[in-house]
Write a structure and sequence with these properties.
It contains 14 helices and five strands. The chain is an alpha+beta fold. The protein starts with a helix and ends with a helix. The model is unreliable at 269-283 and 418-423 (pLDDT under 50).
Amino acid sequence: MTELRGRGRRLRDALRGASRLGRGRRPTRRELAVTLLWLGGMYWTTAVRTGDWQAPDLPLLLSVVGAWAPLLVRTVRPAVALLGTLAAETSILVFLTVPDSISGLHGGMGAYQPVPLATMLAVATLAARVPRRTGWLAGLLSGAWLAAVGVAANTGETILTDLLVFYLVVTAAAVGVWAAGRREKALRLAAEQEEHTQRAVLDERLRIARELHDVLAHNLTLVNAQAGVARYLLRSDVDAAEQALGDIAQHTGRAIDELRATIGLLRRREDDEDLGADPNRSLRPVPGTAALGELVAGFASAGMTVELSTSGTLVPLGEHVDLAAYRIVQESLTNAAKHAPGAAVEVVAAWGPAGVRLRVANGAPAVPRPSPAPGTNNGVIGMRERAAAAGGTLRVGRTADGGFEVVATLPARTTAEVVRRAE
């Protein structure tokens, strides 16, 4: 008894699971219109199955409506709709005997109408909502079932109609599988587009964060150093303290200008007519290697010992490469000022036909700090990202004398710029 109950429970669970295949939502207006038109098509094919218009009698009319009725839930429970149409059309094949006058026409091609029209729509709906293999299986089994019932219930004169029934149901399944494939492709493309958009947004956020970090960290580090100098000299050398305060004003003004320029670059659009009339109104030139001397002088004015040397023949750099070179040197000097106060810093720019090699190295701190300067390591990450985006490489690490060095190798132009130049 217990075993029978267990089998019954498993069978019930299996039926429930099967009924949920392709479970969806209420039909749209378009889907409801298709279902209603399908009823008209079933009625019409039934009326003309003799070759002339002949309205179906009451039993046949009820059979048409009964076979169509399960289609009302085809979008909500497509598996239930398919089972309902199969049951109704099986009843038509078994209980509504095909008259000899119809089965003999054209090899019996019009004998079974409305079979299998309702099953075709139900199979197509289910196949469009389930995995491809399940859709094909549903079509093959449904077509084979109706064909087998037709062979068993009628004479051999309808064998071609039985085969046609099988073919039509399988063809409907193929249409559903094709529709499912199109929908999956559209969803996949939409997901890829969404991922691409999110990646672009993330890259843009990182670029903005990198620009703001480089602009603010550099100038605020100099301001902090100058403030310390001014405070130290305020009581002993008023003139020198006044000069240090003037340098603070200069660096804060430069920070504001660079911040304004950075925000302007981030907000600028190619078709911005206002900026096109006067681009210098709100934007400064993008800094590059030509401004390395000014950059080094700014750090020197804050009390750092910085030496800049160049070798080789200067070659033009692409805009992104030039900016990356400047920002890498700027961030390296900023880190040296924060983490190695008092240490001498050497900046070397070695030019070659292929690009430039930059080296920024500092010795060990002349005055060890009681605690390490706080840092997030975003500066090094930003330098690596800039070098990679420019098509170059970056190496950072300790030196033998306890100092620190940054070595960046950047090509004359990025790959994208070379392609644009070729076009």
